[in-house]
Design a protein that fits this description.
Chain lengths: 264, 280
């Protein structure tokens, strides 16, 4: 029989933490910050797999780390929010309840399973004014922090936070806030410690728009994003849709069955 | 709260599974008691007259999309249960749903359908096609068949603006259903509920393909007037209480409900027209 080596609980926890932290630090970063018109969420992301998404009317989700893990957490959040909203009322879905569920879940996964989740997530809830905004950071081990104003997650989050801390202003408009977020994300990762200039193609951007009623989440892409990155403002109506691309075109659909004759 | 399911307070596995993007399918596993079709009813009884019934709903395809209108009456046998019930609602940003039949189950069906569509959008990051939405609704109606057999039948009318239509001239589309979950696409116009025979007869004479939204709103209010004229369960424009039909449109710009002022103007025109000529 193989000999079992003793490992102290402290050692086990340390090893797991280190493993999770390394995994998170490898990925690209994301920042979330309050501005005058709402909450801005920006992730460095060159793929179409999303790191930022809508959870409910005034709540958004941003994550860094391992995609399959935070994707299942995101789905769980949408399910929980929709179920609470259906059973009670839309106003009864809160960011704090979601953050609580996430800390419990990540905490249990961290201490009970072999491999901890390599993720760090942010739950953002937009309020009527910037000081009513709520930002929760939930770590891989289930620890949760309430960080009003701004937060950075992922690889070299410290350095990015330092840029944000110096220049963040809750009364800034959207182009200014976006410029700061892009600059903060670009302040790390260049060769020899140089800064980078991130283009629209490298950024995934969304806002929770304070002034809207109902679903406030808007994804900003393409033309609207280029205009904003050029320090010009975009009218509210052109910010983009809620989180939904239109369905696939109908002309490619077979008429009756995929095997029928009239499919041409 | 959903997290109450698990003693550790963590989200149960069913929440974290990849599973499905359909909210009702998720509910059927996580909390089946929240689905209207899953409640056992005592056998052999008819609950039909014990619950309020909603009546006439009309949908008309226009050049820009669709118009849906519903009267404001709910009845319970010979009594009027409500004078100002709203039976036409937005299903999502491009489609509308109206209900006829047992009001309680209908309202629940609408809420569930709204969450279903929004849930899919959020999970997939894409909207369902209009046919996909109609098929989903048909499945939900089918789930209520047991209750329908015992007098709690509800039938929806679904219409919307198709963002990727086969024929761009026919972007406004209407779907009707039967209690068994049968799904039928309608051309031009459709009405459901007890006054639907009279409303459809009125529309048959007046409807022309490609009507404008404004004309269709007028047609819908006229048709509801005709339904109320001959069907006691359909309410006409209530001038004394200022209660007028709910009229909504779905076009490329999304769904909107006609404002109080707009519908008041149309309803007053229709009523004063009937003062001259009761037959319209």
């Amino acid at each position: 029989m193989a000999m079992q080596f003793y490992a102290s609980p402290e050692q086990v926890q340390r090893d797991r933490s280190e493993y999770a932290r390394k995994g998170i630090a490898r990925g690209r970063s994301a920042v979330v910050l309050s501005y005058e018109g709402g909450i801005l969420l920006v992730a460095e992301n060159i793929t179409t797999l999303r790191k930022i998404s809508e959870i409910y009317d005034r709540i958004a989700f941003a994550a860094v780390g391992r995609y399959n893990e935070f994707e299942s957490l995101r789905r769980a959040g949408v399910r929980m929010a929709d179920m609470t909203g259906l059973t009670y009322d839309r106003r009864d879905v809160t960011g704090r309840a979601l953050a609580n569920a996430y800390t419990q879940t990540l905490g249990a996964i961290f201490s009970e399973t072999q491999k901890p989740y390599e993720v760090e997530i942010c739950i953002a809830q937009v309020g009527a004014t910037p000081d009513q905004d709520e930002l929760y950071r939930i770590m891989y081990d289930g620890s949760a922090l309430d960080e009003p104003g701004f937060m950075a997650m992922g690889g070299q989050a410290e350095a990015i936070s330092a840029v944000l801390r110096e220049r963040h202003d809750v009364n800034a408009d959207l182009p200014t806030a976006l410029a700061l977020a892009a600059e903060a994300l670009g302040s790390v990762g260049g060769e020899n410690g140089q800064t980078r200039t991130l283009t629209a193609k490298q950024l995934e951007v969304a806002v929770l728009d304070r002034r809207r009623v109902g679903r406030t989440f808007r994804r900003i892409a393409d033309a609207a994003l280029l205009t904003l990155l050029g320090h010009e403002s975009v009218p509210d109506a052109d910010l983009g849709e809620t989180d939904a691309a239109p369905p696939a075109p109908a002309d490619s659909k077979p008429v009756e069955s995929a095997a029928s004759e009239d499919t041409e | 709260m959903a997290t109450g399911f698990d003693p550790s307070g963590r989200l149960p596995d069913i929440f974290l599974n990849t599973g499905t993007s359909s909210f009702t399918q998720f509910l059927s596993a996580a909390a089946p008691e929240l689905l209207p079709g899953r409640r056992p009813l005592p056998p052999g009884l008819s609950a039909g007259d014990a619950a309020p019934h909603g009546t006439t709903i009309i949908a008309i395809a226009t050049a820009e999309g669709v118009v849906m209108a519903g009267d404001r009456r709910a009845t319970m046998g010979n009594l009027i249960a409500s004078r100002d019930i709203k039976k036409v609602h937005p299903a999502d940003s491009y489609s509308l749903i109206g209900i006829a039949g047992t009001a309680g189950i209908g309202i629940e069906l609408i809420r569930l359908f709204q969450v279903e569509l929004e849930h899919y959008e959020k999970t997939e990051g894409a909207m369902l096609s209009l046919d996909g939405k109609a098929n989903r609704l048909a499945a939900m109606v089918r789930g209520n068949l047991g209750a329908a057999m015992q007098g709690l039948a509800v039938v929806p009318l679904f219409a919307g603006f198709d963002l990727s239509p086969l024929d761009s001239a026919r972007a406004g589309r209407i779907f009707s259903f039967d209690v068994a979950g049968g799904l039928y696409e309608e051309t031009g116009y459709e009405a459901i509920g007890s006054g639907s025979l009279f409303a459809k007869a009125a529309l048959k004479k007046k409807y022309r393909p490609g009507v404008s939204t404004d004309e269709a709103v007028r047609l819908a209010v006229e048709a509801l007037y005709d339904a109320a004229d001959d069907d006691t369960a359909t309410g006409g424009p209530d001038l004394t209480r200022k209660i007028y039909p709910v009229v909504m449109t779905a076009t490329a710009n999304g769904t909107t409900r006609l404002s109080e002022a707009e519908i008041t103007t149309v309803a007053e025109q229709v009523v004063s027209g009937r003062m001259e000529n009761p037959g319209g």
